[in-house]
Every structure is written in C-alpha cells, then in structure tokens.
C-alpha cells in the first residue's frame, strides 16, 4: 500500500502514466509573412495535441530557426511564448518571428534569389504539471517558397 502513491505520482509526472500524458507538439507550418530590405518575418505554427482529460499548462515554449546554407545549418532567429493554457484535444499556436539584422540579411541574399529557403525549427516546451516541469522537444525541417501572399 505504501508504494501505490509513489507509483502513481511517478507515472503521472513521467508522462507515461495513468493520469497525465505529455502533449504531442509538432511544427505544422512555417511561412514567410513579410520580406523587406531590412526584415524577414516568419510565422511558425505549432500543433499541440493534448490527449488528457484536463488541460495542461506550458510554462515556457522556446525554439530557434536555422536556415540551410550549403550543408551547414546557420542560426536565423528565435521565438518563445510563456504561460500557455492548452485545452484538451487539438490546439494551434502561431508565433511570429523576425530577422532584423542587415548583416544577416546580406548573407541570405543568395538564398533568397533561389526562390526557396530550407529552415529547421528546433525547440522545446516546458510543462507545469503538479509542480514538475517535464520538457518536450520538437524539430521540423521545411522548404519555404519566398513568394509573398
């Protein structure tokens, strides 16, 4: 009888348990929303599936965006959100990110001239479950056409 609360608590916090499962986080889309001589703006849309019977809270969600330059991934920008309430079922969050650095933009001129840019979004969400903070990593690679809507 002594072990039952420990087992339930351990399973609940681990994300593999009977009560609280880690939400599934995937990058649904990364699109170009704005392109000027000084700024490139992307919208990163995350799909979050919460299969629990109750909502969960994401304490902090952070990610970095890299672009493919030949065979190397180069840092482009980052984004974050805090204190996200995730309801049961499917959720979607769109986070805009911008690159305002002229030096970095000049490095992208050749890639922009090709008409597409391959980006990798890599990040993690830190949950807040009963005082514990499990981390859920996510990564996504996509080619973005550089035509504005």
Notes on the protein architecture:
Helix content is 17%, strand content 58%. The protein is of the alpha+beta class and 149 residues long. The protein has one domain (21-145): Immunoglobulin-like, CATH 2.60.40. The strands form 2 sheets. The protein has a 4-stranded antiparallel beta sheet. Strands 1-2-5 form a 3-stranded antiparallel beta sheet, with no helix packed on it. A hairpin with a 2-residue loop joins strand 3 (56-69) and strand 4 (72-86). 18% of the residues are buried. The model is unreliable at 1-18 (pLDDT under 50).
Please render the helix and strand layout as text.
Elements: H1 3-14, E1 24-35, E2 40-50, E3 56-69, E4 72-86, E5 89-99, H2 102-114, E6 116-128, E7 135-145
Antiparallel strand pairs: 1-2, 2-5, 3-4, 3-6, 6-7
Outline of this structure?
The protein is of the alpha+beta class. The chain has helices spanning 3-14, 102-114, and strands at 24-35, 40-50, 56-69, 72-86, 89-99, 116-128, 135-145.
Number of helices: 2
Span between termini: 62 Å
How many discrete domains? 1
Q: How can the largest sheet be summarized?
A: 4 strands, antiparallel
Can you name the CATH architecture? Answer: Sandwich
| Strand neighbour order, sheet with most strands | 4-3-6-7
